[in-house]
Amino acid sequence: MWDTLRTGLAFAVDIGVLIFVHELGHYLAARSQGVTVEVFSIGFGPAMAKWTARSGTVWQVCALPLGGYVKMQGWGESEDTALKTPGSFAGASLASRAFIVAAGPLANLLLAFVLFSGLYMAVGRVVTQPVLSEIQPNSPAAAANLQPGDRVLDIGGTAISDFSQLQQIVAEHPDTVLDFTIARGDTQFTEPVQLGSVSAEGETAGRLGVIGKQSQLQRYSPPAAIVAGGQETVSQIRGWFSMLGQLAVHHQGLKDLAGPLGIIQITGEAAALGFVTFVNLVAIISINLGLVNLIPIPVLDGGHLLSYVVEAVLRRPLSAAVREGAMRFGAAILLLLILFVTFNDLTRLGTVAWFSHLL
């Protein structure tokens, strides 16, 4: 009972914060460009609570919390009509409209940077040390006589500070001989290691055959925490684009895509591991939310930005018929994606196997 309650509460906090920050980005950008915001909503459906600010904006929390929106005056109107209405979104300049739309995803990326930096500043960062905890039998590491407890100091002239860096270098050099500088007890030596390789779905990566389990909390000064937070945010963004490339080119990772049910499960597991793990997950999901919204699919923020690029090239807005058709197409793609990731979630939870067995 407690696990279910904790998972539900953690998911509510997670999704609530991410949606609020995303829509706040749109809201603040709109106000800065002189566009009137009529409604700021967290969730869809009937309003459970609402109030009207002095600016005239209605702030509300609705029954279905899986999303939110900022309703701006003149959204969807033609330019001719909008130009006659002060504070209209459609009457704003093309650059202003693009800025307002992009501000939501950018707010999510900024949130991740703030969370990472704050976490490293207040608590520290858990870093897996480049120490070989286990050596797999018949692996390249075993053939090179590497031993449990060895600390890798350098690989091919590159100083190694954590285990993930070791993994990255090994993965990028399949079937290659690299010089490993090892610290073993009080001695230090360099050993040439012939890496192996492993292939999966058309991709080949290097293999060493080791496991790293030794981690420690690395503390940062405020300036160093800000730098490390920025580096982690950039690293996560690069990883996301790398994953998207693998998905598009090799269809690798399709089974790993998660939907709302998967996020609920992951959020519950992170909450069970403690505050630091939960905050770290919120930052990662925030990056994913921001980048997914920038994908150029109509309905998403990226789709609107793409239409503004086309408008800038053509020097005229797209016709209402084209915009409506694009929105319907985008909605269909989004619905198919939701169905697909939900099927993935149900498969991981065992629901699909249970139903198949029942049939």
What key phrases describe this protein's structure?
single chain, 359 residues, alpha+beta, Pdz3 Domain, four-stranded antiparallel sheet, two-stranded antiparallel ribbon, 12 strands, EC 3.4.24.-
**Low-pLDDT ranges:** none
Overall strand count: 12
Structural class call reads alpha+beta
CA-atom Rg in angstroms = 25 Å
| Helix content percent band | 40-55%
Shape, principal axes of CA atoms: elongated
Number of domains: 2
Oligomeric description of these chains: single chain
Overall pLDDT metric: 86
- The spatial strand order of the largest sheet comes to 6-5-7-8
Task: Tell me the series of helices and strands, N- to C-terminal.
Answer: HEEHHEEHEEHEEEEEEHHHHHH
SS summary, helix count? 11
Distance between the termini: 30 Å
What about the largest sheet? 4 strands, antiparallel
Beta-strand percentage range:
15-25%
Write the layout of secondary structure elements.
Layout: H1 2-32, E1 37-52, E2 58-72, H2 79-82, H3 94-122, E3 125-128, E4 134-135, H4 140-143, E5 151-155, E6 158-159, H5 163-171, E7 177-184, E8 187-194, E9 196-200, E10 203-207, E11 210-211, E12 215-218, H6 222-250, H7 260-273, H8 275-293, H9 301-314, H10 320-348, H11 351-358
Antiparallel strand pairs: 1-2, 3-12, 4-11, 5-6, 5-7, 7-8, 9-10
Helix pairs in contact: 1-3, 1-7, 1-8, 3-6, 3-8, 3-9, 6-8, 7-8
Structural commentary:
With 359 residues, the protein is α+β, with helices and mostly antiparallel strands. It has two domains: 2-122 and 265-358, no CATH class; 127-217, PDZ domain (Pdz3 Domain, Roll). The protein is built from eleven helices and twelve strands. Strands 6-5-7-8 form a four-stranded antiparallel beta sheet. Strands 1-2 form a two-stranded antiparallel sheet. Helix 1 (2-32) crosses helix 7 (260-273) and helix 3 (94-122) packs antiparallel against helix 9 (301-314). The two termini are 30 Å apart. The mean pLDDT is 86. This is Zinc metalloprotease. InterPro entries: PDZ (IPR001478), PDZ_6 (IPR041489), PDZ_sf (IPR036034), Pept_M50_Zn (IPR004387), Peptidase_M50 (IPR008915). Its cofactor is Zn(2+). Its EC number is 3.4.24.-. It comes from Acidocella aromatica.
